[in-house]
């Protein structure tokens, strides 16, 4: 089954760009997430973390 899929994918022109695009999207998302986590204000994090406890 894997040989069939691999053989079929190799016949598509330009298919080699899709893994690169997905890697760039993945890397960009996690860099942005880490940047947001390290620059978030502590009072905002405390407010959001206490939301489930506030009835």
From TrEMBL:
<keyword id="KW-0472">Membrane</keyword>
<protein>
    <submittedName>
        <fullName>Cytochrome C oxidase subunit IV</fullName>
    </submittedName>
</protein>
<keyword id="KW-1133">Transmembrane helix</keyword>
<keyword id="KW-0812">Transmembrane</keyword>
<feature type="transmembrane region" description="Helical">
    <location>
        <begin position="12"/>
        <end position="38"/>
    </location>
</feature>
